[in-house]
Amino acid sequence: MDAETDDIQRNKHPAREADPIDRKILGVLVEDATISYAELGERVGLSPPAAHERVKRLKRSGAIRATSAIIDPRAVKKPLLAFVHIDTRGWGKTPELMAVSKYPEVEEMHTVAGDTCMLLKVRTEDTRALEGLLARLYDTPGVTSTRSYVVLSTYLERPVQPEITSEWPAPKHMATPMY
Amino acid sequence: MDAETDDIQRNKHPAREADPIDRKILGVLVEDATISYAELGERVGLSPPAAHERVKRLKRSGAIRATSAIIDPRAVKKPLLAFVHIDTRGWGKTPELMAVSKYPEVEEMHTVAGDTCMLLKVRTEDTRALEGLLARLYDTPGVTSTRSYVVLSTYLERPVQPEITSEWPAPKHMATPMY
DNA sequence: CATAATGGCCGAATTAAATTCCGTATCAAT
DNA sequence: ATTGATACGGAATTTAATTCGGCCATTATG
């Protein structure tokens, strides 16, 4: 059984599919992870210990990665949000570039397909701090240019939702793909 | 005192600056909000009731917006992440466009400065579902074009961090701005 | 300058919740 | 049919959250 546990860790695959009750549990806990197991159980139709057991399993399997306090950026003096696209010479994922993840202003870092190599989501106190970060980027070998999209207003920002849209409204003029 | 409470709610301003202990508390709770007040207190140098009192205040003031379970996207069948830039004819923030926030695949929605009107962060099961969402966008009046950046790998993705970089490494060739 | 008033803290006590422990039912594989 | 494994519920136990009262420091007030 140790072997199986290791396997789960390595493959980073949930041990088993999340069933509808698991989805409900995730839905509830994404909204508010501070409720008691008694209340959670009531909302999904389980006894407190059963709900507890499910949650433990979801954490063990990695489906629940963490339980975090969601902070208001203004409360920590970070009112400015920006997405920074970075173009690099050659393959961009160098250790030097990765090092910017040490700055707490950098919240996300992805490689993307399209005309850019990397995409950053950064949150700073002001434009001065953003400029500081950009300057830091330009000092990084291989970085040729950046484009920054400064956020004016945020209308929606939420964690990963467990729900999935099963049917997209089919537009009239779309051919049916082969697969 | 009711008036003051209302004031806080309306202005969405923290009642008082977060002091260093508050920052520490936020730092701990962003990493793991499941610890006991006993442990939280120990880590920040307070008794359990004092820590509890601080956390209550942080929640009341809105500094802690929520406590959420962070879900592994793969566990809920959403392995595909993309950022979608939307160009619109005229002012983009129409009710029709805002309505896409009802889809659980849409995690973020911002208006941005730069050559785009809106920026979406979306997470879907596959390219088919992304296409479904894009088709839905093009069916929205005013949308003229979109550009999608599909994420290949995510190297960093974390909630708002309470820490702030106080000193950015000054690049050699940068003039000192007036203010 | 003295003194009330406030806010934040701690220790102890109380209440509530998490967690453990079994016994039981259900389903799958043999 | 029988065994094994899994998930569940109820009751008991342990642990944590929450309340309460008193103390100290800082700030406002006469």
TrEMBL record, chains A, B:
Record bears the keyword Magnesium: no
Xref: Gene3D superfamilies: 3.30.70.920, Winged helix-like DNA-binding domain superfamily/Winged helix DNA-binding domain (1.10.10.10)
Domain HTH asnC-type: 18-92
A Pfam family per the record: AsnC_trans_reg
Keywords, in A-Z order: DNA-binding, Transcription, Transcription regulation
Keyword Transcription: yes
InterPro entries for the chain: ArsR-like_HTH (IPR011991), AsnC-type_HTH_dom (IPR000485), Dimeric_a/b-barrel (IPR011008), Tscrpt_reg_AsnC-like (IPR019888), Tscrpt_reg_AsnC/Lrp_C (IPR019887), Tscrpt_reg_HTH_AsnC-type_CS (IPR019885), WH-like_DNA-bd_sf (IPR036388), WH_DNA-bd_sf (IPR036390)
Coiled coil (UniProt feature): none
SUPFAM superfamilies: Dimeric alpha+beta barrel, Winged helix' DNA-binding domain
Record-linked CDD domains: HTH_ARSR
Protein name as annotated: Lrp/AsnC family transcriptional regulator
